[in-house]
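Fold it.
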Amino acid sequence: MTESSHILGNFERALTQLSDDIIEMGNKVEGCFEMAVHGLVRRDTDLCNQVVADDEEIDQFEKDIDKQGMQIIALYNPVAHDLRKVISAMKVSNNLERVADQAVGIAKRARKVNKNAEIPETLMVEPIYHLAASLLHDAIAGFNSGGSVDEAIAIQSRDKEVDAAHKKLAKKLTRQMEADPEHVKDYLNLQFIIRFIERIGDHAKNIAQDTIYTESAMDIRHGGDLPESD
Protein backbone atom coordinates (compact mmCIF):
# COMPACT_ATOMS: atom_id res chain seq x y z
CA MET A 1 0.00 0.00 0.00
CA THR A 2 1.38 3.39 -0.96
CA GLU A 3 1.59 6.22 1.54
CA SER A 4 -1.03 8.22 -0.36
CA SER A 5 -3.51 5.33 -0.38
CA HIS A 6 -2.87 4.79 3.33
CA ILE A 7 -3.62 8.45 4.05
CA LEU A 8 -6.73 8.29 1.88
CA GLY A 9 -7.94 5.24 3.77
CA ASN A 10 -7.44 6.97 7.11
CA PHE A 11 -9.26 10.05 5.82
CA GLU A 12 -12.24 8.03 4.64
CA ARG A 13 -12.41 6.19 7.97
CA ALA A 14 -12.31 9.51 9.83
CA LEU A 15 -15.17 10.86 7.71
CA THR A 16 -17.17 7.69 8.32
CA GLN A 17 -16.63 7.93 12.07
CA LEU A 18 -17.71 11.57 12.05
CA SER A 19 -20.88 10.68 10.14
CA ASP A 20 -21.62 7.75 12.45
CA ASP A 21 -21.31 9.99 15.51
CA ILE A 22 -23.67 12.57 14.01
CA ILE A 23 -26.20 9.79 13.37
CA GLU A 24 -25.87 8.49 16.94
CA MET A 25 -26.12 11.99 18.41
CA GLY A 26 -29.16 12.75 16.28
CA ASN A 27 -30.92 9.58 17.42
CA LYS A 28 -30.19 10.42 21.03
CA VAL A 29 -31.47 13.97 20.69
CA GLU A 30 -34.67 12.90 18.93
CA GLY A 31 -35.25 10.42 21.73
CA CYS A 32 -34.81 13.10 24.38
CA PHE A 33 -37.28 15.40 22.64
CA GLU A 34 -39.82 12.59 22.49
CA MET A 35 -39.28 11.62 26.14
CA ALA A 36 -39.67 15.21 27.31
CA VAL A 37 -43.06 15.65 25.63
CA HIS A 38 -44.24 12.18 26.61
CA GLY A 39 -43.23 13.01 30.17
CA LEU A 40 -45.64 15.93 29.99
CA VAL A 41 -48.66 14.40 28.27
CA ARG A 42 -48.36 11.07 30.11
CA ARG A 43 -47.49 12.78 33.40
CA ASP A 44 -44.41 10.58 33.66
CA THR A 45 -41.82 12.44 35.69
CA ASP A 46 -39.33 9.59 35.36
CA LEU A 47 -39.13 10.32 31.62
CA CYS A 48 -38.51 13.98 32.39
CA ASN A 49 -35.72 13.06 34.79
CA GLN A 50 -34.11 10.84 32.14
CA VAL A 51 -34.00 13.74 29.67
CA VAL A 52 -32.17 15.89 32.19
CA ALA A 53 -29.76 13.06 33.01
CA ASP A 54 -28.96 12.42 29.33
CA ASP A 55 -27.98 16.02 28.63
CA GLU A 56 -24.38 15.55 29.78
CA GLU A 57 -23.86 12.71 27.30
CA ILE A 58 -25.16 14.89 24.48
CA ASP A 59 -22.85 17.73 25.51
CA GLN A 60 -19.95 15.29 25.23
CA PHE A 61 -21.08 14.26 21.75
CA GLU A 62 -20.79 17.86 20.63
CA LYS A 63 -17.29 18.19 22.09
CA ASP A 64 -16.13 14.94 20.48
CA ILE A 65 -17.54 15.85 17.07
CA ASP A 66 -15.90 19.28 17.18
CA LYS A 67 -12.59 17.64 18.07
CA GLN A 68 -12.90 15.10 15.25
CA GLY A 69 -13.77 17.81 12.75
CA MET A 70 -10.79 19.95 13.68
CA GLN A 71 -8.47 16.94 13.51
CA ILE A 72 -9.74 16.00 10.04
CA ILE A 73 -9.18 19.53 8.77
CA ALA A 74 -5.70 19.73 10.32
CA LEU A 75 -4.50 16.27 9.25
CA TYR A 76 -6.07 15.80 5.82
CA ASN A 77 -6.75 19.31 4.50
CA PRO A 78 -10.08 18.36 2.89
CA VAL A 79 -11.45 20.48 0.05
CA ALA A 80 -14.74 21.13 -1.76
CA HIS A 81 -17.61 18.84 -0.68
CA ASP A 82 -15.54 16.99 1.94
CA LEU A 83 -14.56 20.23 3.64
CA ARG A 84 -18.12 21.53 3.60
CA LYS A 85 -19.34 18.23 5.06
CA VAL A 86 -16.88 18.42 7.96
CA ILE A 87 -17.66 22.06 8.71
CA SER A 88 -21.39 21.40 8.52
CA ALA A 89 -21.12 18.35 10.78
CA MET A 90 -19.67 20.53 13.51
CA LYS A 91 -22.47 23.06 13.04
CA VAL A 92 -25.11 20.34 13.04
CA SER A 93 -23.75 18.93 16.31
CA ASN A 94 -24.09 22.40 17.84
CA ASN A 95 -27.71 22.64 16.72
CA LEU A 96 -28.40 19.14 18.04
CA GLU A 97 -26.91 20.09 21.40
CA ARG A 98 -29.19 23.11 21.51
CA VAL A 99 -32.20 20.95 20.66
CA ALA A 100 -31.25 18.80 23.65
CA ASP A 101 -31.13 21.94 25.79
CA GLN A 102 -34.66 22.80 24.67
CA ALA A 103 -35.74 19.24 25.52
CA VAL A 104 -34.30 19.70 29.01
CA GLY A 105 -36.28 22.92 29.31
CA ILE A 106 -39.45 21.07 28.32
CA ALA A 107 -38.72 18.29 30.82
CA LYS A 108 -38.12 20.71 33.70
CA ARG A 109 -41.32 22.64 32.97
CA ALA A 110 -43.22 19.36 32.58
CA ARG A 111 -42.11 18.27 36.05
CA LYS A 112 -43.69 21.42 37.45
CA VAL A 113 -46.94 20.81 35.57
CA ASN A 114 -47.01 17.19 36.72
CA LYS A 115 -46.94 18.23 40.38
CA ASN A 116 -50.37 19.84 40.05
CA ALA A 117 -53.83 18.57 39.15
CA GLU A 118 -54.13 17.48 35.53
CA ILE A 119 -55.46 20.06 33.06
CA PRO A 120 -56.80 19.15 29.59
CA GLU A 121 -54.79 21.90 27.90
CA THR A 122 -51.66 19.79 28.33
CA LEU A 123 -52.76 17.65 25.38
CA MET A 124 -52.85 20.74 23.17
CA VAL A 125 -49.06 20.49 23.03
CA GLU A 126 -49.11 17.27 21.00
CA PRO A 127 -49.91 18.70 17.52
CA ILE A 128 -47.09 21.25 17.56
CA TYR A 129 -44.76 18.58 18.95
CA HIS A 130 -45.55 16.27 16.03
CA LEU A 131 -44.88 19.08 13.54
CA ALA A 132 -41.53 19.93 15.11
CA ALA A 133 -40.49 16.30 15.66
CA SER A 134 -41.19 15.45 12.01
CA LEU A 135 -39.26 18.52 10.90
CA LEU A 136 -36.29 17.62 13.09
CA HIS A 137 -36.25 14.00 11.96
CA ASP A 138 -36.34 14.92 8.28
CA ALA A 139 -33.66 17.58 8.69
CA ILE A 140 -31.30 15.15 10.44
CA ALA A 141 -32.02 12.34 7.97
CA GLY A 142 -31.46 14.68 5.04
CA PHE A 143 -28.09 15.78 6.31
CA ASN A 144 -26.95 12.26 7.15
CA SER A 145 -27.95 10.86 3.76
CA GLY A 146 -26.67 13.76 1.68
CA GLY A 147 -30.29 14.48 0.79
CA SER A 148 -31.46 16.65 -2.04
CA VAL A 149 -31.29 20.41 -1.85
CA ASP A 150 -34.99 20.59 -2.78
CA GLU A 151 -35.93 18.54 0.29
CA ALA A 152 -33.82 20.79 2.51
CA ILE A 153 -35.45 23.87 0.99
CA ALA A 154 -38.89 22.39 1.76
CA ILE A 155 -37.92 22.17 5.43
CA GLN A 156 -37.43 25.94 5.45
CA SER A 157 -41.09 26.34 4.52
CA ARG A 158 -42.29 23.70 6.96
CA ASP A 159 -40.71 25.61 9.83
CA LYS A 160 -43.26 28.33 9.17
CA GLU A 161 -45.99 25.80 10.03
CA VAL A 162 -44.39 25.29 13.44
CA ASP A 163 -44.18 29.06 13.94
CA ALA A 164 -47.86 29.47 13.04
CA ALA A 165 -48.92 26.62 15.34
CA HIS A 166 -46.94 28.18 18.18
CA LYS A 167 -48.53 31.57 17.66
CA LYS A 168 -52.04 30.12 17.58
CA LEU A 169 -51.55 27.96 20.67
CA ALA A 170 -49.88 30.76 22.61
CA LYS A 171 -52.98 32.91 22.08
CA LYS A 172 -55.24 30.09 23.30
CA LEU A 173 -53.17 29.61 26.44
CA THR A 174 -53.15 33.34 27.13
CA ARG A 175 -56.95 33.41 26.96
CA GLN A 176 -57.10 30.39 29.24
CA MET A 177 -54.83 32.11 31.76
CA GLU A 178 -57.34 34.96 31.91
CA ALA A 179 -60.35 32.64 32.15
CA ASP A 180 -58.86 30.24 34.72
CA PRO A 181 -56.43 32.14 36.98
CA GLU A 182 -56.36 29.23 39.44
CA HIS A 183 -54.10 27.32 37.04
CA VAL A 184 -52.16 30.28 35.71
CA LYS A 185 -48.79 28.75 36.64
CA ASP A 186 -49.56 25.61 34.66
CA TYR A 187 -50.58 27.63 31.61
CA LEU A 188 -47.43 29.70 31.93
CA ASN A 189 -45.32 26.54 32.01
CA LEU A 190 -47.12 25.31 28.89
CA GLN A 191 -46.31 28.63 27.23
CA PHE A 192 -42.63 28.02 27.94
CA ILE A 193 -42.90 24.45 26.65
CA ILE A 194 -44.41 25.41 23.30
CA ARG A 195 -41.79 28.13 22.95
CA PHE A 196 -39.07 25.51 23.44
CA ILE A 197 -40.74 23.36 20.78
CA GLU A 198 -40.86 26.30 18.37
CA ARG A 199 -37.14 26.83 18.89
CA ILE A 200 -36.49 23.18 18.06
CA GLY A 201 -38.14 23.86 14.72
CA ASP A 202 -35.68 26.70 14.22
CA HIS A 203 -32.75 24.38 14.89
CA ALA A 204 -34.16 21.86 12.41
CA LYS A 205 -34.25 24.65 9.84
CA ASN A 206 -30.62 25.44 10.62
CA ILE A 207 -29.66 21.81 10.03
CA ALA A 208 -31.44 21.90 6.67
CA GLN A 209 -29.46 25.02 5.79
CA ASP A 210 -26.28 23.09 6.52
CA THR A 211 -27.43 20.39 4.09
CA ILE A 212 -27.97 23.05 1.43
CA TYR A 213 -24.50 24.44 2.07
CA THR A 214 -22.88 20.99 1.99
CA GLU A 215 -24.55 19.88 -1.22
CA SER A 216 -24.65 23.16 -3.18
CA ALA A 217 -21.95 25.35 -1.58
CA MET A 218 -24.59 28.06 -1.08
CA ASP A 219 -24.95 29.82 2.27
CA ILE A 220 -28.58 30.88 2.68
CA ARG A 221 -28.30 32.14 6.24
CA HIS A 222 -29.35 35.73 6.94
CA GLY A 223 -31.38 36.07 3.77
CA GLY A 224 -29.00 34.44 1.31
CA ASP A 225 -30.51 33.37 -2.01
CA LEU A 226 -31.86 29.85 -2.27
CA PRO A 227 -30.33 27.63 -4.96
CA GLU A 228 -32.52 27.01 -7.98
CA SER A 229 -34.55 23.81 -7.99
CA ASP A 230 -33.54 21.06 -10.38
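The longest helix spans residues 3-41.
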